[in-house]
Each structure stands twice: as structure tokens, then as C-alpha cells.
Design a protein that fits this description.
- This protein is mainly β and 70 residues long.
- The protein has one helix and three strands; from the N terminus they run E-H-E-E.
- A three-stranded antiparallel β-sheet has the order 1-3-2, with no helix packed on it.
- It is elongated, with a radius of gyration of 13 Å.
Length: 70
């Protein structure tokens, strides 16, 4: 299970890294989880209240995945 800031987060200025190279592309996350069953996938805006440096609307990618028996 993970939640990371997407590359779109840069334009929000509500926390997280300031450059796209430190953020995540949702297509990359799906590629990295190939071979796993994706139980949840979300790419979009979420409100965050995580202290003075991470508050407001942000853009995230959420993934919950499960390794298949094999």
C-alpha cells in the first residue's frame, strides 16, 4: 500500500518535492506493480493537513496491491 505525490503536485505548492524528478508518474507505478493484483488505484486531488509545510489540496497517486499466489 502506498500514497505518493504525483508529478502534478508541483503546481499545487502545498508540500512535497519541488521538482518533477522527485515525484511519481502513475503509469510508472502501474508498471512497477505488474504481476500484482491491484486492489485500489487512485490518481487525483486530496486534501491534506499534515503540518505547516503539507497542508491544502494536493495531487496524489494511491495504490494498494497484493501479490498473487504463484
Amino acid at each position: 500500500m502506498l500514497e505518493v505525490y504525483s508529478e502534478d503536485q508541483v503546481r499545487y505548492q502545498t508540500g512535497g518535492p519541488k521538482t518533477e524528478d522527485m515525484l511519481y508518474d502513475p503509469a510508472d507505478l502501474l508498471e512497477w506493480t505488474k504481476g500484482y493484483k491491484v486492489l485500489h488505484f487512485f490518481y487525483g486531488e486530496e486534501d491534506r493537513v499534515e503540518g505547516s509545510l503539507h497542508t491544502g489540496k494536493g495531487h496524489v497517486v494511491q495504490v494498494i496491491f497484493k501479490k498473487e499466489k504463484g
